[in-house]
Amino acid sequence: MTAPLTLAQMATQVLTTADGKAKTDLSRSHAATWFAARQQDPCPIEIGTAQPPLHPARPEHPELLSPRDVPKRKPGSEAGRIAMLHAVAHIELNAVDLHWDIIARFSHVPLPVGFFDDWVKAADEESKHFRLICDCLESLGSHYGALPAHRGMWKAAEDTVDDLMGRLAVVPMVLEARGLDVTPGMIKIFKQAKLTQAVEALEVIYSEEVSHVAYGSKWFYFLCGRENLDPKEVFHQLVRKYFRGALKPPFNEEKRADAGIPPDFYWPLADTVKPMQGL
Ligand SMILES: [Fe+2]
Ligand SMILES: [Fe+2]
Questions:
Q1: What is the pLDDT of residues 94-114, one digit of tens each?
Q2: Largest CB tally within 10 Å, which of 70, 162, 176, 189?
Q3: How far is the CA of 173 from the centre of ligand 2 (A)?
Q4: Which long-range contacts (CB under 8 A, 24 or more apart) does 272-278 make?
Q5: Of 156, 173, 161, 180, nearest to 235 (Cα)?
Q6: pLDDT, tens digit, 9 for 90 and up, residues 143-195
């Protein structure tokens, strides 16, 4: 009998699968295998270690362009809405890889097993999000790969290949938190266009993304506590080191608070001064 794959090997398999549907099928089936194993005591699957690729495998389409070359979208038109959903699908597919990458990349770091549970769950949800948005694109006569997409999205992962705290600060606590800020506006656009399928998909994404940001802040606080570091100071240092540019208000302060990110984490990094609050 061959030994079961370790979790780090499963993660690497997802990262080295190019096709979006094949990648997300594998991601969901590995997540189900992991959570079934976690019901058993002892868990028959080890975390293991792996050497994930620096860049995940990606399908031949979409063509990846630098951010300034990706055509601007006009949200008022059907083509603009398709472009917006296409961009969301691209973000979700990147997120699948980002969550499996944190598992494989940092599998050698001694961490509670709950760290791995959280990112497997997040990767599973991202896989579902990608498929939901692919279904919306297909209902509108398009598909993922039909338009060019943003090349820059893996940059944060590359910059933080050997810095787990940097990875947590920039990926879930900055990039995914940004998703909480912008998703309500997107839901509004699709509501106005009466595209119920897209509204429902974005609402699932919006509710589940809060927990991904929360996993980020939870493990960031954990690592700061283990090293006896001040989380707010370290967060500011790491975001300034790895994230180019300022954070953009308006912030979704309520959902950010739900996810464990207080205002004094992000306002000092914003490109404007915090507005005065009514007393
Ligand atoms: Fe997502
Ligand atoms: Fe996410």
A1: 999 999 999 999 999 999 999
A2: 176
A3: 10
A4: none
A5: 173
A6: 999 999 988 889 999 999 999 999 999 999 999 999 999 999 999 999 999 99
> Per this entry, what is the length of the chain?
279
For residues 134 and 129, give the distance between their C-alpha atoms in angstroms, rounded to a whole number: 9
Q: Residue 68 in 3-state DSSP?
A: helix
**Using alpha carbons only, how large is the chain's radius of gyration in Å?**
19
Find the 92 Cα to ligand 2 centroid distance in Å.
7
The span from the CA of 170 to the CA of 177, in Å, is 9
CA 178 – ligand 2 centroid, Å: 10
**CA distance linking residue 37 with residue 248, whole number of Å:** 41
Q: At what angle do helices 78-105 and 20-38 cross, to 10 degrees?
A: 40
Q: How is 91-106 classified by DSSP, letter by letter?
A: HHHHHHHHHHHHHHHT
Rounded to the nearest 10 degrees, the angle between the axes of helix 196-227 and helix 177-192 is: 170
Residue 151: CA count within 13 A, CB half-sphere: 9
120 CA → ligand 2 middle, Å: 11
Q: What share of the chain is helix, strand, coil (3-state, %, to 5)?
A: 65, 0, 35
Instruction: Round to the nearest angstrom and report the end-to-end CA distance of the chain.
Output: 68
